[in-house]
Design goal:
327 residues, mainly alpha, three-stranded antiparallel β-sheet, two-stranded antiparallel sheet, 15 helices, 5 strands, 57% helix, elongated
Amino acid sequence: MRGGIGWQVNTVFKHSNIFQPGTSKHEAKMEAREELARQSLSATSDKLAERTAIYSYGTAEKYKDTWHSLAEFAKQEHGLRDITKLEASHIQAYLESKIAEGVKYSTFQRECAAIAKFEQALTRFAQSDVSEKYKVSNTEFNFKEAIESAREVAKETLSRDIKDRGFENAREVINNISRDESKIAASVQYEGGARISEACYIKENQLKGIMTDKVTGQEVGQLRLTNTKGGKERNIFVSKETYSKLETYIKEHGEFKISRNTYSHDVNAAAKAAGERVTDTHSFRYNFAQERYNQYLENNYTHEQALQSVSWEMGHERADITLHYLR
């Protein structure tokens, strides 16, 4: 497709028939629900969105603003000249740039909604009668995985009206946990920066023994995380005490496992007992990032090296993601 990137976005908007002013959004959703029911499919929000259009002028303008911003980003950062060649990698990079800017989570969610609708508009445009005129070669667009991947990062990092998501005293919260399994999971999150899903299920083959932490020089237990977001395995390090408890538990039970609801409930109660203003298990990740970053600096790593290393240990790629845990 030729022409300026902004003009191309406007052309997709015009010829995709994605904008249907004067049509009842309520009726369109009812029809979509009936269609899904005939196909024996659940009427999820995603499924309904795929079968409905844009009906208000206000929403249309907001969505188009995001589309133009995305297109300009892809052009400037990735040399994209044809909007119909937009790929999931462009979406991922754009949304990660929004996370790096520190936008509010609600703003990020609106960006995701607009991009999901852009996928729909591009698909309609590629399948329209004018696609041949504009020499559209790509007819398949799938941004869902990129959106969900970025959304998982956003959930962990972007503000939801709580300025500091870390505990004032993470160790006191852990000491207040009565259930042994929850105490172990909390220690794995706090000491190793694990996500809740990674801390709640650990198998014997993930125990990799005692080693020396190259940063602090202390002896630590090494865990190999395999049930990770995005499927990228990584190593984390916990105290010898936590590692020993895990090792003993797994020898007795075959594996370490606790339900996320049970664990979250126990942390919530312990945090309240400790007088903490936040009670989210994810707060342990904030404490890990802040303390681990300082460990790197105290051992002669640069600011940039510390940011990138902490990011990798937490399962992220971009160094600047760490900044959100440090605020």
